[in-house]
Amino acid sequence: MNSIERVKIGIPELDDLLHGGFIKNSSTVITGGVGTGKTILSLQFLWNGAKTYNEPGLLITIDESPAELRREAAMFGWDLKELEEANPPLLAIIDIATPRAGLPSDERYTLRELDLPLIIKKIYDTHKEINAKRAVVDSLSALGFRYDSLGKIRSIIFQLTSFLNELEVTSLMTVESPENSSISRFGIEEFLAQGVIQLFLRNDDAGNLKRNLQIRKMRSTQHSLKNFFFEISDKGIVILSG
Q1: How far is CA 181 from the centre of its chain?
Q2: Which CA distances in Å does 180 have to 22, 198, 232, 239?
């Protein structure tokens, strides 16, 4: 029987929990409330992929501008510009956030109209251009806010995630979960991905907020269902204990 190919996240403890990392070419939803670390985990996945494993990545940003993401990454010593300007490029940022806010964008990869076929074409063309092996969508929730009908929102998310599943990339999709409770905002995101990792902020016995992580779903691989404490250090996310 052929062994399952893995893609390492670059967070050693999390890779161990997943028996070597994500399954190659799978999609995983990273869900959680505000401030739980979804974007940081996603940036860490792309940075480690590029720097350690020479795997180019796509960052499709719908929520924060590329400038904001570069500043956030720099706090951990991750120079995204270095990856973007490498020859060949190790990162391409597709800017949907700035036009979504009604502002002009001078990014190389940007969209003037928030139209799903155009988004899919831009992702496809950029994926081919840099030979991407990893992809992050940050966030699916922000894409959904453009539409009034829940049925339309679910249709758009379904189409985008189905398209990503057809590309030969290992992808992460961040999802905002309201009030740190339900898994996703629109009730479909977690069913479309092969994996779900949920991040929490919870009070400990002393009333202090602690970050927790739980692997809710991961098809085709064994995983723990325990809660694991984690911290956001100056190096990124570090898993502490279960």
Answers
A1: 19
A2: 24, 9, 18, 19
Q: What is the pTM of this model?
A: 0.91
> Is CATH 3.30.70.141 the classification given to domain 6-241?
no
Domain ranges of the chain: 6-241
Can you give the pLDDT of all 242 residues of the chain as single tens digits?
357 899 999 999 999 999 899 999 999 999 998 889 999 999 999 999 999 999 999 999 999 999 999 999 999 999 999 999 999 999 999 999 998 888 989 999 999 877 889 999 999 999 999 999 999 999 887 776 666 677 777 787 788 888 988 998 999 999 888 764 556 565 656 667 789 999 988 877 777 888 999 998 888 777 777 889 999 999 999 998 65
